[in-house]
């Protein structure tokens, strides 16, 4: 059997026992041609029927409707604003003239209510234009047209000269028509925005095949090098947003299916319509909470709009929260503290390229929150083991989606205090030398005899941490795992925190051996700052964080990266009290500062605190200098602080607390008369993807995402990131610890 074969699979073949309800099999001539590039793969395919694909089609149609209805973010157009203001001035001037025509006998001084009404109306309408939904604008447009017609009917006045308002037949007809048009507009908007998407998603009475006119496609050519389970090609009829009309589209699915013939596992969906999408990733048979649906893309996946070109990815994020804190609840005052931690996994879908969608990021539960003390029913392992199994990445599955294995063409080696370290590799045994590294160029294994020889790199005594998803459970791979712990601030439910971290991970495309977790402090979902600060920094909360670190250590993690934002920075300084016996003490510290007995006994089980990053930390500067820095520096040699002198919330905090805040410092920091061993990154001058309050932008700004990725993955210090950062001087021949980004303001362009 050759490596390239054409396999014709007929949907009415006797080898495949699939039937299509309501179809005449004698009149069906549907043929799907598949190229199989790997001779070792099975050529038998299951051809999916319209009945089997119908539920997945509805889910994808629901996703499409959400993108169409919610729309995309767009740049504010000053030209559009100008013409709207001109229209408003003309419209309100006509209203003023109409009112003035009916009040000729009123004196000028007595007309001040007209001017006040004009100003208030103009302000409200401008607010509506900026803030309120599109439906309100359309209702206003109809009102403006009706007002102009009424002025024409009454010859420049809103009311007739001898009669009251709407006393003429023409005025009554106009008001009736206006009311009917306004109600019809509102009715259509409710149907399109709320009712129809819910019907598509949940209505059992909707006949999917009839509504979209789904039919099996014939004479389709598909390329599949992996011999996946099933394939289905269909045509349908649907409304397209760009043409404002109905057109035929084609849908193809190829991948794994469950017993009911619905997508389950790894699969690829291609919809060629303008609002359709090309999605590669993981599908599952359960759709969160208590609603059971088959054939749902749950992530990780990568998708791109067929016509728009917009890209949106889904990543998986683990999170840990207090057992009595709902993951999507936001409260005014915090709940009383209660013991217990829950661990769960969520899938976060985010926009990553093109126009960003307004309905993203969006997080949904993959594994519902369960107590950290519970065990998996099937394997009887701790629940965190089950979470790790579900924290898969798209990178680890790329070979399953026709993406060839990336040839290892470079190896990043860095010198640390205890020897060499290689990014993306881990030593096979403790006997592996850390004083020298031998890198070899070897031929890459290839299944095809006639293909061109490719080469890759191998490191003696080291093994790549980036492995296929099928190897995630191996002991060697688990020993190389690293973890990102994101500690967020107050007024942030766990659901929103997972979306924030998910957006950062989707843009950063982190390797599969780095597992992300959100640690949600107790009561962090509350709006009451003082209550959250007290409860989240309590001894009980510190103990909860220590328990979580112990679970990571027991699960086989070798290194941890702490990423904190806002109040999370202050909590990181408090939680450092729990590091003893969890993390290794830095080798470069003096022996007098280390407890050698404790260190030698637990050296084999201790994790490494690789990096600590404080983003706009809401922490007192004095506390960091006197206590926090020494605690962190004892365990971590790579501490980074991102500050912004124009951070508005932190500035308000300084006024209230009457003390300097660490997140607004842009000058060198000293400890015991010496420069601190930290990197202070000044983001004051950045102005891209940054809100006016300038407090939370690390997960959207491309410079920050790349900079943070270098810190976490490659573990580069700021002085090694010279292509992106510039170091501030502190005197003649002296350099400080403050860095700024090498970037021009957004308003500077070439002439």
Automatic annotation (TrEMBL):
Designated name of the protein: Alpha/beta-hydrolase
Keyword Transmembrane helix tagged: yes
One Pfam family of this chain: DUF900
Organism domain of life: Eukaryota
This protein's UniProt keywords: Membrane, Transmembrane, Transmembrane helix
Keyword Mitochondrion: no
Organism the protein comes from: Rhizophagus irregularis (strain DAOM 181602 / DAOM 197198 / MUCL 43194)
TM spans (from-to): 81-100, 112-130, 135-153, 173-196, 731-749
PANTHER family in the cross-refs: ABC TRANSMEMBRANE TYPE-1 DOMAIN-CONTAINING PROTEIN, TRANSMEMBRANE PROTEIN
SUPFAM superfamilies recorded: alpha/beta-Hydrolases
């Amino acid at each position: 059997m050759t490596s390239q074969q054409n396999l014709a699979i007929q949907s009415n073949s006797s080898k495949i026992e699939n039937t299509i309800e309501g179809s005449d099999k004698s009149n069906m001539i549907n043929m799907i041609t598949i190229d199989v590039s790997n001779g070792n793969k099975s050529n038998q395919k299951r051809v999916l029927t319209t009945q089997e694909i119908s539920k997945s089609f509805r889910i994808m149609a629901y996703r499409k409707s959400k993108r169409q209805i919610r729309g995309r973010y767009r740049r504010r157009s000053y030209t559009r604003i100008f013409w709207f203001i001109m229209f408003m001035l003309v419209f309100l001037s006509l209203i003023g003239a109409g009112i003035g025509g009916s009040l000729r006998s009123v004196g000028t001084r007595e007309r001040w209510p007209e001017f006040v009404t004009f100003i208030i109306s103009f302000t409200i309408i401008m607010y509506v234009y900026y803030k309120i939904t599109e439906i309100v604008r359309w209702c206003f447009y109809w009102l403006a047209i009706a007002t102009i017609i009424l002025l024409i009917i009454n010859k420049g006045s809103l009311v007739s000269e001898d009669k009251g308002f709407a006393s003429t037949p023409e005025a009554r007809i106009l008001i009736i028509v206006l009311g009917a048009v306004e109600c019809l507009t509102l009715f259509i908007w409710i149907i399109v925005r709320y009712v129809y998407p819910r019907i598509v998603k949940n209505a059992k009475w909707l006949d999917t095949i009839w509504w979209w006119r789904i039919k099996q496609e014939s004479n389709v050519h598909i390329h599949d090098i992996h011999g996946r389970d099933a394939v289905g090609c269909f045509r349908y009829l649907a409304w397209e947003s760009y043409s404002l009309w109905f057109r035929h589209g084609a849908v193809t699915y190829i991948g794994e299916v469950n017993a009911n013939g619905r997508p389950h596992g790894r699969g690829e969906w291609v919809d060629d319509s303008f609002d359709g999408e090309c999605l590669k990733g993981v599908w599952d048979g359960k759709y969160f909470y208590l609603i059971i649906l088959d054939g749902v893309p749950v992530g990780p996946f990568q998708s791109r709009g067929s016509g728009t070109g917009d890209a949106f990815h889904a990543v998986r994020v683990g999170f840990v929260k207090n057992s009595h804190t709902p993951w999507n609840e936001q409260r005014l005052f915090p709940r009383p503290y209660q013991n217990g931690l829950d661990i769960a996994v969520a899938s976060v879908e985010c926009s990553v390229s093109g126009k960003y969608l307004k309905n993203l990021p969006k997080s949904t539960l993959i594994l519902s929150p369960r107590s950290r003390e519970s065990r998996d029913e099937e394997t009887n392992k701790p629940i965190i083991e089950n979470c790790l199994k579900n924290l898969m990445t798209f990178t680890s599955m790329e070979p399953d989606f026709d993406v060839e294995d990336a040839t290892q063409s470079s190896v990043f080696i860095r010198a640390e205090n205890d020897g060499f370290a290689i990014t993306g590799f881990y030593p096979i045994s403790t006997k592996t030398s850390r004083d020298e590294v031998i890198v070899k160029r070897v031929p890459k294994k290839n299944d095809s005899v006639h293909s061109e020889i490719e080469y890759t790199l191998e490191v003696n005594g080291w093994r790549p941490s980036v492995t296929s998803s099928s190897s995630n459970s191996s002991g060697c791979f688990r020993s190389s795992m690293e973890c990102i712990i994101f500690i967020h601030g107050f007024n942030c439910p766990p659901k929103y925190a997972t979306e924030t971290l998910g957006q950062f991970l989707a843009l950063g495309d982190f390797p599969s051996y780095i597992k992300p977790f959100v640690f949600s402090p107790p009561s962090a979902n509350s709006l009451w700052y003082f209550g959250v600060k007290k409860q989240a920094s309590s001894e009980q909360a510190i103990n909860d964080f220590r328990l979580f670190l112990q679970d990571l250590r027991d699960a086989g993690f070798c290194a941890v990266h702490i990423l904190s934002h806002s109040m999370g920075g202050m909590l990181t300084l408090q939680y450092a009290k729990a590091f003893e016996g969890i993390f290794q003490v830095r080798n470069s510290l003096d022996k007098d500062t280390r407890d050698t007995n404790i260190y030698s006994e637990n050296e084999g089980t201790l994790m490494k605190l690789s990096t600590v990053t404080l983003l706009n930390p809401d922490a007192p500067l004095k506390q960091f200098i006197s206590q926090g820095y020494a605690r962190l520096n004892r365990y971590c040699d790579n501490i980074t602080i991102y500050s912004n002198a124009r951070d508005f919330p932190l500035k308000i905090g300084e006024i209230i607390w009457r003390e300097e805040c660490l997140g607004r410092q842009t000058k060198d920091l000293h400890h015991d008369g010496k420069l601190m061993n930290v990197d202070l990154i000044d983001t004051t001058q950045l102005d891209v993807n940054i809100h006016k309050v300038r407090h939370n932008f690390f997960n959207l700004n491309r410079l920050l995402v790349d900079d943070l990725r270098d810190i976490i993955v490659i573990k580069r210090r700021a002085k090694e990131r010279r292509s992106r950062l510039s170091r501030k001087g502190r005197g003649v021949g002296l350099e400080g610890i403050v860095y700024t980004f090498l970037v021009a303001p957004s308003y500077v362009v070439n002439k």
